[in-house]
Amino acid sequence: MSVKVEVIEGGVPHNTILIAGVVSTLVCIYLTYLNVVTQTEMFSFFGGLAVVAALVWGSHTIKVLCSYGIGTGVPSAGMIAFGSGVIAMLYATRFGMLAPVVALILAAIIGLVLGWVSNNILNMKIPAMVQALTEMAVVGALTLMGFAALITGTFGFEGLTTGTVTMFGMTLLTHQNSFIGGCLIAVAFLLGAIAIQHPFNACLGPGWTQDRMLMLTAECAFLSMIVAAIMSFALISAGSAIISLVIAIIGWVYTYKEYMALSKRDAHSWLDSKPIPDVEGQ
Amino acid sequence: MSAVAAKPAAGSAMNPGAMAVGIILTLILVGICYVMSPGVGLMALIGVIIGGVLIGFGTHFVPVGGAPAAMGQAPGIATGVAMLATGAGVAGLFGGAWAAETLPATMDPMMQLIIVVCAGAVGGGLMMAITCMMVNFLYVFGMGIPPASGKVANDPITGDSQAEYKSQGTEGHGLPFVSFVGGVIGGTLGGAGGTLIYFELLVLYENALPGLMNVTAAQVMPIAVSAAGMFAVGLFLVNAVLTAYNITGTIEGPHDPKFKRWPRSIVASAVASALCGLVAVLIVMPLPI
């Protein structure tokens, strides 16, 4: 197996991204707690911003890990991140107010063990493996928690398993119309897993630049947030869902434009090709 | 440490010390489960570990070609280990979940388990059989290349010689008979493993969640199914990716020299499944704080 060498040249060091990612994700998830304080659902969109922050951090972790030739493709890294993350996240929701912190700690433990297993039992012997798998499990858990907060406005087990349905003017309690009971978590799972593995897979190579990849991650994350915001119409009030949707669309348009500008900056040359020319009459 | 200094050497060497530690770690995790939740929780954890090991072992049979196979330069199905294992497992899980829904509740639990796991195994095996067949159609009729193995001189099952059909400069191409059989065996084991995880967790949640949430058994069904399904998918992906790390890239099937690495994968899957399974069991236990 050969080693693919892609040393980070310039750009923000990984540890800075790591610390900024943890802090901003946790702060954003906790800001959704304003919902409980103010008795509204207007602050759910902070969950989506947590998703963006976590995914930007996670995609850079994937870059650190996959710069070593692990021989299994970049998508597998995204899959193990969310596979281990969903387990930690589901258990952590039981802890109410402490859920994000418990998710972080538990995911870190799971990731640490998986990293140790890969490096020692499976003999991978990749220096970045343990730290990268630890970070990735945390990213997976916090991303799912962010999606949960965005879609339902809360991150506790009760809130995620209980919903209401209005029938003939009566409001009934139901478990089917909820984040976990309705299996919206499966959609959130794949929205996150695709968004985390795509950017490095698309940007890798000799022309890799950090700002372009991270901008693409933010773009993918806002795209996922648009879908999640539409799903949130089912579980939170329409006004709050519209706030999330508008923020997601604004974020997506901005990051998409920025990403296109960065792509044109990094390209050797580019041609703004027009649609198929009309050859009639020639 | 920089990427330049790294020398990943994932050879076929075993690491007996680490494997011993792994087995001890698994036993410790099972012990924690026995203390926290003897009986139904422990049964579920043991089922999860067996299922995870089945997935890890079964994936070694699947002919994974990766990018070289897409260009006709290596035998196998042209995608990664994680994708194929997940496909087989999820297909099996759907089959098993359907069987679990349709069985009468009065049936003997052991009989239920056997039927559900068999249904999952058939689902996974069928998915891999269809995939292998369509891949061979594409190779033979689309790309115009004969199936030939690069790792063995004669097919271990049919005895057909391979070297005459192998193009120069390639490691073989297409899916020889032994790879096809390996794929079906791998899909069967993976589907059975995934379904075993799902069913064990489903039974646990159906029994434990109503008391925990103060609701009736019928109301809790959506949550039990969804949570068991998500945990099963999560465990499946963890085991599939760990097996992918063990194989490192491509494998032709049971006749490939890389197949001999399976003991490592079994220990790794057991540790990972025990840890994740313990968390999945603890979710229905009263909180320690």
Describe what you observe in this structure.
Chain A is mainly alpha-helical. Chain A is built from 10 helices and 2 strands. Chain A has one domain (14-152, 159-265). Chain A has helices at 14-31, 34-38, 45-66, 75-92, 99-121, 129-152, 157-161, 184-203, 210-232, 238-266, and strands spanning 163-167, 170-174. Chain B is an all-alpha fold. Chain B has one domain. Chain B has helices spanning 16-36, 40-59, 66-70, 81-102, 109-143, 177-213, 217-247, 262-282; strands spanning 148-149, 172-173. Chain B has a two-stranded antiparallel sheet. The two termini of chain B are 40 Å apart. Mean pLDDT of chain B is 85; it is low at 1-10. Classes of the chains: A mainly alpha (282), B mainly alpha (289). Chains A and B meet through α4, α5 and α8 of A and α1, α4, α7 and α8 of B.
What is the terminal-to-terminal distance of chain B? 40 Å
Structural class of chain B: mainly alpha
Provide the succession of SSEs of chain A. Answer: HHHHHHHEEHHH
Number of strands of chain B: 2
